[in-house]
Amino acid sequence: MSMGRLLFAVFASAGLGLGAHAAEPTGPSRQQLYNDAQAAFDRGDWTTAATGLKKVLDGDPTPGPTYSKAVVSSRLAQALTNLSRYAEAEADANSAIAMLSNSKSDVTADLVEAYLALGDAQRYDLDEDGGAKAYRHALTLASTQTDSNQSLDVKLGLIQATMTTDPETAATVADTILSDKALLNTSPR
Questions:
Q1: What is the pLDDT of residues 146-157, one digit of tens each?
Q2: Where exactly are the structural domains of the chain?
Q3: Which of the residues in the chain have pLDDT under 70?
Q4: What's the DSSP call for residue 41?
Q5: What's the CA gap between 41 and 80, in Å, rounded?
Q6: What is the DSSP letter of 105?
Q7: Count of beta carbons in the 10 Å neighbourhood of residue 8
Q8: Where are the strands (E) in the chain, listed by range?
Q9: Which of 39, 54, 96, 162 could bridge across to 166 with cysteines, CB 3.0–4.6 Å?
Q10: pTM above 0.85, yes or no
Q11: How far apart are CA 43 and CA 55, in angstroms?
Q12: What is the share, in percent, of the chain residues with pLDDT greater than 90?
C-alpha cells in the first residue's frame, strides 16, 4: 500500500477526509447550556431548567461518574421535584449521591444538596419516612459545614417530613432552630 493510500485510510477511519475541515460545533456549548439552565433554575423556570440540565447530562462525553455530572444530577432532581416528577427526581438525586459518595474530594456541601433534593422529592411524593431519612443524612453532613442557610433548609425539610409521623422529632428540630440566635439573625428567611 502506498503512503498516500495509507494516510487516506487512516484519515478515513478517523472520520476525516484529506483537506476536509473539522466540523464546526453547532448549537450552544455544554457550558452555555448549563449556564442557561442554571439561570432558569435561579429564576424558578423549572421546565427550562430541567430540559437544559438533561441536555447537559445527555451531552456529557465523559465516561463514568464525574463531579460535574453529580452536581447537574442534583440540580436536575431539584427542578424535577418542582415539576412534581418525583420518581425521576429521586433517581437523579440517588445518582448524584452515589457519584458524590465515591469522590476523593471534599464534596460535603454538594452531598448535603443531593440528600436535600432526595428528601424533598420523597416528602412531596408523600414518603415522609424516606424524606426524613434523607434529611437526617443531610443534617449529619451539614453539621460539619459553615453554611447556616443550607443547615436551615435541611432542618425545615426534616420538620415537614416528621410533623405528622414523628411530632416529637419535628418539635425538637424546631426548638434547635429557635434557640440558634445566630442562625435566626443571619437567615434571609
A1: 777 788 889 999
A2: 27-186
A3: 1-25, 186-189
A4: H
A5: 11
A6: S
A7: 15
A8: none
A9: 162
A10: no
A11: 19
A12: 63
150, 153, 156, 162: CA torsion to nearest 10? -90
Report d(CA 130, CA 93) in Å as an integer. Answer: 13
CB atoms within 10 A of CB 78: 25
Instruction: Give the tens place of pLDDT for each residue, 28-63.
Output: 888 899 999 999 999 999 999 999 999 999 988 888
8 A C-beta contact, residue 162 and residue 128: yes
**Closest by Cα among 188, 189, 154, 186 to 173:** 154
Q: Is 123 within 8 Å of 165 (Cβ atoms)? A: no
Question: Count of CB atoms within 10 A of residue 46's CB?
Answer: 18
Quote the pLDDT of residue 13: 40
CA 75 to chain centre: 3
Fill in the amino acid letter for 121: A
* Site of grid cell 502506498: 2
**CATH code for 27-186?**
1.25.40.10
Instruction: Decide: 37 and 53 in contact? Cβ < 8 Å.
Output: yes
